[in-house]
Write a structure and sequence with these properties.
The structure holds 2 protein chains of 2 kinds. Chain A is of the alpha/beta class. Chain A contains 11 helices and 10 strands. Chain A starts with a strand and ends with a strand. Chain B folds into 2 domains: about 230 residues, 3-Layer(aba) Sandwich (Peroxisomal Thiolase, Chain A, domain 1), CATH 3.40.47.10; about 150 residues, Thiolase/Chalcone synthase (Peroxisomal Thiolase, Chain A, domain 1). Chain B is built from 12 helices and 12 strands. In chain B, the strands form 2 sheets. A 10-stranded mixed beta sheet of chain B has the order 4-3-5-7-1-8-12-11-9-10, sandwiched between helices. In chain B, strands 2-6 form a two-stranded parallel ribbon. Chain B starts with 5 loop residues before the first strand and ends with a strand. The chains are: A alpha/beta, B alpha/beta. At the A-B interface, α3, α5, β3, α6 and α7 of A face α4, α5, β4, α6 and α7 of B.
Chain lengths: ~350, ~400
């Protein structure tokens, strides 16, 4: 498979959106919850609409529009999104009012916007795009499912340009509830020292990233997506190493042909053990880098990883604060080997054009 | 890429039956599933009729072979998916690459709304077991784990077209050579969240719904699950039982008109039906039966009706909305109605559109009013349209 990535846009906890230098300065947080830096939405969305939209819809729609602008496409042939939690803010608002008002005198707005396909639907509505429109909601595989759908549509010659992305938001309520399951660090930790924390838990994140995929190469392509695979509940690091080797062989590659490996390490001590094991088995340590200290951990964080990988191969640069050492070698191929909750593993092979 | 995808197994549960056989019996008797609410705890118990599956969670759990503390959504899903797999009777299923592609709109919301009431009082209270499976994907995963399906599992949520999209995504996974067998469809259980949501939109009929009737007053909500076992040509050849039908056409189009309302000229529905026909290489006159989306709301039936008129005029196939039996099962409806569509081909039957009385003034056609058997049903179109303009049509064809 080859899907050409024409453009990419991300709204994250770092300065990643719009006309900014590629992660020139990293933002440090001393908190277990990273919030996205919201852009001025008026550049993307009618102010009247902004007021009605919840945060996830605003950021999803803005990222989608920025991505289309960068890719110079006004009408994609398909719009596909992934979201694990969907529109949590609107869901929470409707749920709270329903309970507090004992099912009486409710307004429909929050309910209308609570459906998981709202971001994809709002994009279609703004573009007046009648084409294929789909939304995947499968936990740590939500974005990967959307991406697979896009890749299949390209292969089926059903579409030439596809807008595909992911969005997940964290709300006060969802953070409070998720926190009771103990996934996040108890102590204050700097995101820039996340991997040195050596304690249980990670830092919570949220964000959106959109990509324009094309079936054929075009002059300004950023990168090429050459492979995509998911696997569920691997039991050992050996099994993960084996899956990665199979994935690489299927693409006629060996571990040594990979220039950068982007792992799903998230600061959790136990998760790190398994990742250290399979990376040591397959790759020299100077190639292995991580990204979740930038984005925080969330089910569709792999979309941020893809945004990062695409920019690294395009700009031939591993930003300071991402690489371990100065690395001046050329970057031909990046393997994203994400994990979420040690259960959802995904592999994406991103190569230079 | 031109390979066929066959339907080898069916499973369904809704307000009119707990399995395929009970559904066929209810259709033949003309028995609708709507009644006063008895299981869902809501202030609207005496006011708004719905089509509940008439089993408690404990009874469902027993049938599903799952713990009764799980979301009703997972229990309904498991029962229908298990029936579909048993029906397909694929020997050595573990030797094939098998996937589960399910759909729902509110995941484990039935449990979340219990949790949330306590959580709102005190952020440290509320049983976490009631919220751990809130996500749509969790419901799918609980069922996939119980079925032992691991090769590929995912969930789609495009409002009321969710499971139609799951079915055709599943078929494409097979056509692209990624899987051999896919259990595809969807589920939703009744929740206060959706009941109140639809109630605020003022589209819930206080009587039993009358789809495609001039005097229709809205929809009745239902709950249920419907799954197809989709198989590749290679798997189909290995089966002792002949598959029921093949999925010959599908199309996903967006109305791009309004977040919840359908366009008056039926753009999305028209494009979905037209695209599905093109993909199946069929002419409008080849379609023998349309299982309409037909919710019974003023807006849907008008929009869908105009789209049918634009595409089929002047020769109309038989049509009906089986939501007049099952209510609108939301994210499950595409799966539930795909099962009905395949059964129409298998048994040569047409379902009646219950309570139809007065034709819509803007439409030159009327839906079927009687249960008919002994029909030649070669090609069936199934429509599913949802919030967000998500419109999907599927076409099933006789082998």
């Amino acid at each position: 498979m080859r899907a050409y990535i024409r453009s990419a846009a991300s709204i994250s906890a770092q300065n990643t959106f719009g006309n900014v230098l590629f992660l020139e300065e990293l933002i440090e947080y001393q908190s277990s919850r990273l919030k996205v830096i919201e852009p001025d939405y008026r550049n993307y969305i009618d102010p009247k609409l902004i007021r009605r939209m919840s945060r996830i819809i605003r950021m999803g729609v803005a990222a989608a529009k920025e991505c289309l602008q960068q890719g110079n496409v006004t009408q994609p042939d398909a719009i596909i999104t992934g979201t694990a939690y969907g529109c949590l803010e609107d869901t929470g608002v409707f749920l709270s009012r329903m309970i507090e008002q004992q099912e009486e005198a409710l307004s429909p707005t929050a309910f209308i916007q609570s459906t998981h396909n709202t971001v994809a639907a709002q994009i279609a509505l703004m573009l007046q795009c009648h084409q294929y429109n789909n939304t995947f909601v499968h936990k740590g595989f939500s974005f990967e499912s959307a991406l697979l759908d896009a890749v299949m549509l390209l292969q089926e010659q059903e579409a030439k340009n596809i807008l595909v992305g992911a969005a997940d938001e964290l709300t006060d309520a969802s953070f409070a509830i998720l926190n009771r399951f103990d996934p996040y660090k108890k102590e204050a930790v700097s995101n820039l020292n996340l991997y040195q924390s050596n304690s249980p838990g990670t830092i919570a994140g949220e964000g959106t990233a959109f990509f324009l995929l094309g079936a054929d190469s075009a002059p300004n392509d950023l990168a090429v997506l050459e492979g995509l695979e998911t696997f569920y509940k691997p039991t050992t690091a050996d099994e993960i190493a084996q899956r990665i080797q199979q994935f690489l062989s299927a693409n006629d590659l060996k571990p040594e042909y990979i220039d950068v490996v982007l792992t799903g390490k998230n600061g959790d001590r136990q998760t790190a053990q398994s990742i250290d094991e399979w990376t040591e088995q397959l790759f020299s340590s100077d190639k292995v880098i991580n990204y979740k200290h930038l984005s925080g951990e969330y089910p569709t964080a792999s979309s941020f990883a893809l945004w990062l990988a695409v920019n690294m191969v395009k700009q031939q640069l591993i930003p300071k604060g991402v690489s371990k050492a100065d690395n001046h070698k050329s970057i031909k191929r990046i393997l994203i080997a994400n994990q979420y909750k040690n259960k959802y593993y995904s592999l994406m092979l991103v190569s230079a054009v | 890429m031109s390979s066929n995808v066959y339907i080898a197994g069916l499973g369904v549960i809704s307000g009119i039956g707990n399995n395929v056989a009970e559904h066929l019996a209810s259709f033949e008797k003309g028995e609708a599933g709507m009644a006063d609410i008895t299981l869902l705890k809501t202030r609207y118990q005496q006011e708004i009729p719905v089509a509940e599956v008439k089993l408690t969670n404990t009874q469902l759990a027993e049938k599903a072979g799952m713990p009764d503390k799980l979301s009703r959504t997972a229990l309904l899903s498991m029962i229908a998916a298990k029936e579909a797999l048993a029906d397909a009777a694929i020997e050595n299923i573990t030797s094939w690459r098998t996937g589960f592609v399910s759909a729902n709109t509110v995941g484990g919301m039935d449990k979340t709304e219990d949790f949330f009431a306590e959580f709102l009082n005190d952020p440290q209270s509320g049983d976490l077991q009631n919220v751990v499976n809130h996500e749509c994907g969790s419901v799918t995963e609980l069922v996939a784990d119980s079925l032992g399906i691991q090769n590929y599992v995912t969930t789609i949520s495009t409002a009321c077209s969710s499971s139609a999209n799951a079915i055709f995504y599943g078929a494409r996974l097979i056509r692209n050579g990624l899987l051999d067998v896919v259990v595809a469809g969807g589920v939703d259980s009744l929740t206060r969240f959706t009941l109140n949501g639809f109630n605020t939109l003022m589209i819930l009929d206080r009587q039993f719904c009358k789809p495609f009737d001039e005097n229709r007053q809205g929809l009745n909500l239902g709950e249920g699950a419907g799954y197809l076992v989709l198989v590749s040509e290679k798997v189909a050849e290995s089966l002792t039982k002949k598959p029921y039908a093949r999925l010959s056409g599908y199309q996903n189009s967006n109305d791009a008109y309004h977040q919840t309302a359908s366009s008056p000229d039926g753009t999305g529905p028209y494009l979905a039906m037209k695209g599905a026909l093109e993909k199946s290489c069929l002419k409008p006159t080849d379609i023998d039966y349309i299982n309409l989306h037909g919710t019974g709301t003023n807006n849907n039936d008008q929009s869908e009706g105009i789209a049918v008129k634009r595409l089929f005029d002047p020769v109309y196939p038989k049509m009906s909305s089986t939501k007049s039996f099952t209510g609108h099962t939301l994210g499950a409806s595409g799966g539930v109605e795909a099962v009905f569509s395949v059964l129409a081909i298998q048994h040569g039957i047409i379902y009646p559109n219950l309570r139809f009385d007065t034709p819509m003034h803007e439409l030159p056609f009327t839906p079927a009013r009687e249960f008919m058997n002994g029909q030649q049903v070669n090609h069936v179109m199934s429509n599913s349209f949802g919030f967000g303009g998500n419109c999907t049509s599927l076409i099933f064809s006789k082998i």
